[in-house]
Amino acid sequence: MKILSRIFFVAVAMSLLIALVGPGVKPASASGTIVVQPYGVTADGIPVDEYTLTNAHHMEVKIITYGGIITSIKVPDRKGNFKNVALGFDNLQDYETKSPYFGCITGRYANRIAGGKFSIDGDEYQLDLNNGPNHLHGGFKGFDKQVWEVTQQINEPDAVGIVLHYLSPDGDQKYPGALDTYVTYRLTDKNAIRIDYLATTDAPTIVNLTNHTYWNLKGEGEGDIDDHVLKLNANRYTPDDETLIPTGEIALVKWTPFDFRKAKKISLGMRSNDPQIVIGLGYDHNWVLNRPSFDDKSLIYAASLYEQKSGRLLEIWTTEPGIQFYSGNFLDGTLYGTSHRAYRQGDALALETQHFPDSPNHDNFPSTVLRPGETYQTTTIFKFKVMPPIWLP
Predict the structure, then answer these.
(1) What is the CATH number of the domain that holds 76?
(2) Which residues are catalytic?
(3) Which DSSP string do the residues of 13-31 spell out, in sequence order?
(4) φ and ψ at residue 7, rounded to 5 degrees
(5) Residue 124 domain-assigned?
(6) Gap between the Cα atoms of 251 and 129, Å rounded
(7) Which of 164, 182, 213, 380 is least enclosed, having the fewest CB within 10 Å?
(8) d(CA 59, CA 386)
(9) What pLDDT does 30 receive?
(10) Distance in Å from the first CA to the final CA of the chain
(11) Phi–psi pair at 20, nearest 5 degrees
(12) ∠ Cα 68 55 216 (to 5°)
């Protein structure tokens, strides 16, 4: 009788659980959940799903399989009120036709390549020019415009997540070699988003992957980010030419608007008459993170972003050698996001952990060449905290 009673109890409990969570919800870990639902169908007729990750503290991250795009990140402020702090759209069509890389996996090569040209072992390759005279973020149909496959849902005691896969064929956007790519998103119970990138190739190629989330810690659609306080763990940066391609110089930030070694408001430099700020219409540059050498691949602190009114603090840790700070200079008021408010210049910023722009054409930059038998592997972590009113990173 005791055994029958236990069986009956388990059966009832499971029935109640299924009734509570519903068919679209999976109980993931002891603390988090994963919700899967259809998001839309691409113009080519490919279905796209949305995965909602929620942790023990009710932090929520939404990811769609189109471009591996993070469409929303809801985190609390000092009073416990949750807001989405990532810019994005509320429909697939806008991501297909309008998106300036909101929240996406960016590749094969994040950032710019001068003239779209590079050489490996004496063989020269010409990529498409989709950014004036240069190649940007993988071309006209980069990783941000591909539908990725979810190969695994992660159910760990202190984290939930998904593994995304895309096999980029040889010649994709004119890159050599087939690149087999996995990107893993984890949302931890410490209010951190961990992104792990892994790729292998069957022929020598170049690769540089990142995530291109646009941040506004006041909340999506809540105006400009002039009052955001930024700190960068970098003594040096790479100045650009007039087309935003690095000149090859690695310059000191000291005595320039690019000195964020001590936390300061972004607005202090965004409207500077410094020639580099004029070129980029604000900040759109790569900082060289402080490491013993370019060969060091340890996980280090890279940046802090703080918004005083809400108390929201974002810390970034990475294994990458550089970070691109882009201050939303080309948002022009023609895009309307999930809040249905216009996105204007300076309404958000991106902090893209990366290898340097145009690395294949600069021998003094960290190499981005990947060869058969090697594994491209990097990690970036976005940690969220809430801080008191009088505080600086």
Answers:
(1) 2.70.98.10
(2) 212, 352
(3) HHHHHHHHH-TTEEE-SSS
(4) -60, -45
(5) yes
(6) 28
(7) 182
(8) 13
(9) 55
(10) 62
(11) -75, -45
(12) 60
